[in-house]
Amino acid sequence: MSALDRFHEEANDALERIAARLPAEAEICLAIYMPDKPDSDIVLKGPSTSLDEVVSTLRRRVLTIDGDNAYKRDLLDAVVGALAVGAQNRNPPPPGHWGQRFWDIGREERALIDELVEALKLTRENLRACQATIHLCGGFDPAYVNDAQAAMKVADAVLAKTSE
Question: Do 86 and 110 form a contact (C-beta atoms < 8 A)?
Fold first, then answer.
């Protein structure tokens, strides 16, 4: 029997002795890790132990949302990805998936941006038409013309950033 197998057996026996002294409804889990050696990690748990509950217990007792770990980074990468593909209206999550909420947010934000771009295009075109009328009619305050020209440049700069 290898040293690792002997360790597993000893740890399991110890967990059984500890579990025998716990209240009947209690669950037990042992996690052993070696920093920077994830292949050596060991998790021993009872057959009915929920690892989600283990994580929730750690969160309630010792973890903070501000701490840095790979699980949170991966989770947030998935959220950012769902927002991005939702904005692109591609690859929706399967029905009932937790990422649907974020995909929907991305889709709704993109729809709002598209609507604002169309409104800006319409406003810019109307401002251009007004400028053309002023130019043809003459006699209007040059300050209005200059301010309108500046506003059209701002609109043009924003519109140039859009994908259309």
Answer: yes
